[in-house]
Amino acid sequence: MPANLTFDALKQAVAAGEIDTVLVCIVDMQGRLMGKRFVAKHFVDGGHEETHCCNYLLALDVEMFTVPGYKSASWTKGYGDYIVKPDLSTLRRVPWLPGTAMVMSDLLDHHTHEEVAVSPRAILKRQVARAKAMGFDAMMATELEFFLFANSYDAINESGYRDLQTLGRHNVDYAIFGTTKEEGVMRAIRNGLWDAGVPIECSKGEAEIGQEEVNAKYSDALDTCDNHTIIKNGVKEICHQHGHAATFMAKYSHERAGSSSHVHQSLWKDGKPAFLDPKAPHGMSDLMRHYVAGQLAYAREITPLLAPYINSYKRFVVGMFAPTKAVWSLDNRTAGFRVCGEGTKGIRVECRIGGADLNPYMACAGLLAAGLAGIEQKLELEAAISGDIYHAKRVREIPKTLGEAADLMSKSKMLRAAFGDEVVDHYVHAAHWEIAEQNRVVTDWELKRGFERL
């Protein structure tokens, strides 16, 4: 993409006065961009080598609260520093922010200079390296759905998040005229992200009132996750500039369908699709069958990586296009896993379990770990299920709560072997904290239900 910058091109742009700010970004546990705004001249003069951040950034909840109980960072340890190491291959302009470039960064231990084990980007990189050692390139794409609202973030906050009004007033799934009414902001999103070096393919109205979808080109796993994170941040910033708001909650209203982040995956070898065998049933190679079998075998254990919050599980509702069964099918949107591109070089498996609230690095790392385990163990693929899978009997269920899923993840021998105990315990602790916070807080639903009636 032309907007991606080499370091030399950045220096030239800074010297010419075209760029005066560089965003040095890391990814936190929630998949959000955190970091610093550098004076561009300082960045090119030496700031690009490294900077530092507090290690509490990988020990916070959604509300930036310092969660007790983490081994990696705590009050007892004094909340020291991580080294922030810019990955200069990710340099790019941010067209919607004047004079601004950005770079993704890795987190290193301040003493050993090794990548921080619980860092989402590092977790994915280790699974990508594992696939590479087996001779494969992990290729992925994530779809991103979100709801677009008429009012700004500040106005919605001041209203107490009540009486929310989406920009669209009715379901405009695939409708050209309906989405024309939202084109002012959606065009800015598509073109802004494209000019930032994110290979956006298209946007469309999704299957719920006020819902949108943005898709980027299939790429290697790390690039896909970097792009996913930039897309989410870009959508929010561009919406803010247009006086609107967007949410990537998995389920913002029980009266509406949720927002997903489907993950498409395949392995390639020497530039060719390793999942394709034209002579095999459905064109699925033995390798692909083992990979999908692994994802099915460990689907319940990796669910907290696909659905990390209490709210995530409210999306799994019969008849609203979010799956409830962790089974596979051929081109069937009621299954947790769908094989697409049957018999073509684009053959791949789509995981439909994840919501738009997932951290892409954690989700893709978990899916890749499960698939590679299936290959290593030569797991046999069960028969595909067809028809309305919502009502299939005696099949593998997606966990119904975060608590159930976290317990499964904690006991997962596969994940502990792939990620290490430190990583698994870290993210299980995050899940338990989310549950404890939800149990502590009195909700609007409880107040309305019980204030007068009890």
UniProtKB/TrEMBL annotation:
Q: Which domain of life is it from?
A: Bacteria
Q: Which residues form a coiled coil?
A: none
Please list the residue ranges annotated as the GS catalytic domain.
Answer: 120-454
Alphabetized UniProt keyword annotations: Ligase
Which co-factors does it depend on?
Mg(2+)
What family classification does the UniProt entry report for this protein? Belongs to the glutamine synthetase family.
Name this polypeptide is given: Glutamine synthetase family protein
Ligase listed as a keyword:
yes
PROSITE patterns of this UniProt entry? GS_CATALYTIC
Q: Which InterPro entries match?
A: Gln_synt_N_sf, Gln_synth/guanido_kin_cat_dom, Gln_synth_cat_dom
Listed Pfam families:
Gln-synt_C
What organism is the protein native to?
Albidovulum marisflavi
